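ugh ok so i messed up the first submission bc i forgot one of the chains. this is the corrected input, ALL of the components this time, i swear. 199 residues overall. if the numbers dont match what u have on ur side tell me asap before i send this to the collaborators (the ones from the other lab, u know who)
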Amino acid sequence: MSVAHTIKHKLKAALSPTHLEVIDESHLHAGHVGARPEGETHFRVVIVSPDFEGLSRIDNQRKVHRLLSEELAGPVHALSVRASAS
Amino acid sequence: MLDDATRERIQTEVNGSDVFLFMKGTPVFPQCGFSAAVVQVLTHLGIKFSTLNVLEDPAVRDGIKSFSDWPTIPQLYVKGEFVGGCDIIREMYETGELTDLLEQKGVTAAVNA
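and heres the new structure output, hopefully the right one now
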């Protein structure tokens, strides 16, 4: 499974999002530190889930970080997150 | 991993300035687009801030992740409190919340900014 698919799969399973975009922006960082020739290093996630209701921005994002901790410790060099409840 | 010496060093840094940014590179030569974006926001607001270049300090680069419970750089602290990384700062800037927070915390723009 590609990194993008894994990210999508994990977030879907854990947060039942009403909206989810996982965008691979690695091409924007080609040649930059942390970039790999095969890509899949820089991602942008836009996620809307009722699970974020009542949480601060920091806690929303921490939720996403925790779910993707393996990816962040491995192939993913940068993860941009926009998380909201609605 | 966060040893006591590094924790103390980080704590001293965040307590030492009203606005403190852990970043890659320096405000003049940021070495990462996300760090550059936060510098740009703070500069635009005319806020005086101090920075630490984690690329020159591997212990802090690693330790700050546990210290803040946040896996990525940049990280912004205001009056010793963690505010967020690049996405949060950008969002808060766009909605005006960042200005409100700085005002609440008594941080005002430099007169000559």
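quick check: The helical segments of chain A are 3-15, 57-67, 69-73. that seems consistent at least. Chain A is about 35% helix and 25% strand.
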